[in-house]
């Protein structure tokens, strides 16, 4: 039985004979299949079965590296938000990171969702690894703001995601719709058309952050279409070398655009009309942002190391890093640290903020934290589900 992971867990090396999907991740984002109940241990199996079992347990460090490096970029970019005003260079860097860090996470999430269907085991995994963490952390962040920020009117609303919890509800919706995208003939053009229509539809509202769900949808659908060989192409030396002038040019353009471009285009949380732009610009910007994000994502993926590094093991704990680092950022804001220590907006302060965010999210991704938080991120809820057959 294969279980579709989310983006945040570790991924296995794909078998040479067929595509397989990793186990549950977080994802960010984006895993070897667990043996069915009653199967024999590898040592007691026939030689062929033992080899297959060993291969299934072997994990591909590349995807763990992708997830860890992406979550560090997420945390650092969030830390820049309160201190980047007045620094054109930091705003330009922020724009570059925001152009591709979530698209990369979402693309990997789609890649890890290729085997998802609506069978009972996978629905159970989806509920326990995505829906339950969403409920827990949406409630936790709302209560944190209510009491830490002295906001007694802050309501707990499961239909209006707060801060970074939008990704979990989006992942839930994307994964539930996976069979649709795998059934239709041209899924990516359809997903792009939906994103373009969303960008010119101001009446969508804030429920379930549907603007983001729909505008980021093409990256998830693209991930569904990818195969292991596509990542091999991306990691070629030629692509890595070409990515250097690519990022240099993107940085120069971002520096020029920093004082001229609204950051709302990067968040994809509003329609063009809501940002005061002509309605038609939503469709144009959707296509332009998709192309730019895809190119930068390729450049980022090209430089991710394929072999195990000291941080590879942290790729399995990115769900904790993603969900916990927001408390650090928001806690500093609620405490007024960014207003009190204005030097944090200076170059040295920006370096300090970046290092603190990177170190903090790294510690949050450690196995110790993952085990301590498993009750919320991947709870054992057998009591809530009917028993089902181990066969697909």
Which whole number gives the mean pLDDT? Answer: 85
Helix residue percentage: 55-70%
Q: Count the E strands.
A: 0
Overall geometric form: globular
Structural class: mainly alpha
Computed Rg: 21 Å
Largest sheet: none
Beta fraction: under 5%
Distance between the termini: 6 Å
Counting DSSP H or I runs of 4 or more residues, the number of helices is 18
Essential attributes:
single chain, 392 residues, mainly alpha, 18 helices
Write the layout of secondary structure elements.
Elements: H1 47-57, H2 61-80, H3 88-111, H4 120-148, H5 166-176, H6 178-183, H7 187-199, H8 210-215, H9 217-225, H10 228-234, H11 237-257, H12 264-267, H13 279-303, H14 318-334, H15 337-340, H16 347-364, H17 367-372, H18 374-377
Explain how this protein is built.
The protein has 392 residues and is an all-alpha fold. Helix content is 60%, strand content 0%. The protein is built from 18 helices and no strands. It has helices spanning 47-57, 61-80, 88-111, 120-148, 166-176, 178-183, 187-199, 210-215, 217-225, 228-234, 237-257, 264-267, 279-303, 318-334, 337-340, 347-364, 367-372, 374-377. The radius of gyration is 21 Å and the shape is globular. The termini are close together.
Describe this structure in a few short sentences.
This protein has 392 residues and is mainly alpha-helical.
């Amino acid at each position: 039985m294969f279980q579709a992971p989310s983006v945040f867990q570790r991924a296995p090396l794909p078998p040479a004979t067929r595509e397989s999907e990793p186990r549950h991740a977080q994802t960010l984002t984006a895993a070897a299949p667990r043996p069915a109940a009653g199967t024999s241990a590898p040592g007691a199996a026939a030689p062929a079965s033992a080899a297959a079992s060993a291969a299934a347990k072997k994990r591909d460090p590349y995807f763990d590296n992708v997830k860890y490096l992406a979550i560090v970029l997420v945390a650092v970019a969030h830390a820049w938000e309160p201190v980047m005003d007045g620094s054109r260079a930091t705003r330009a860097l922020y724009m570059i990171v925001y152009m591709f860090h979530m698209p990369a996470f979402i693309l990997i999430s789609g890649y890890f969702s290729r085997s998802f269907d609506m069978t009972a085991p996978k629905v159970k995994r989806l509920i326990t690894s995505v829906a339950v963490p969403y409920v827990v952390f949406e409630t936790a962040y709302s209560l944190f703001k209510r009491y830490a920020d002295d906001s007694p009117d802050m309501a707990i609303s499961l239909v209006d995601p707060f801060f970074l919890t939008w990704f979990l509800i989006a992942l839930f919706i994307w994964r539930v719709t996976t069979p649709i995208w795998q059934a239709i003939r041209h899924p990516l053009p359809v997903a792009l058309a939906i994103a373009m229509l969303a960008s010119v539809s101001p009446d969508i509202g804030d429920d379930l952050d549907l603007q983001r769900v729909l505008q980021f949808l093409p990256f998830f659908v693209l991930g569904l279409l990818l195969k292991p060989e596509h990542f091999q192409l991306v990691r070629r030396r030629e692509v890595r070398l070409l990515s250097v002038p690519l990022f240099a040019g993107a940085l120069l353009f971002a520096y020029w655009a920093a004082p001229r471009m609204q950051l709302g285009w990067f968040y994809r949380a509003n329609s063009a009309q809501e940002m005061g732009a002509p309605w038609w610009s939503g469709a144009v910007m959707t296509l332009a942002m998709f192309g730019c994000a895809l190119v930068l994502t390729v450049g980022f993926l090209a430089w991710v190391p394929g072999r195990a590094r000291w941080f590879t093991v942290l790729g399995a704990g990115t769900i904790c890093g993603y969900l916990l680092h927001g408390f650090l950022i928001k806690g500093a804001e609620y405490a007024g640290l960014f207003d009190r220590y204005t030097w944090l907006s200076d170059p040295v302060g920006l370096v300090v903020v970046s290092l603190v965010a990177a170190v903090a999210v790294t510690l949050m991704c450690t196995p110790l934290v993952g085990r301590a938080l498993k009750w919320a991120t991947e709870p054992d809820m057998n009591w809530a589900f009917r028993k089902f057959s181990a066969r697909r």
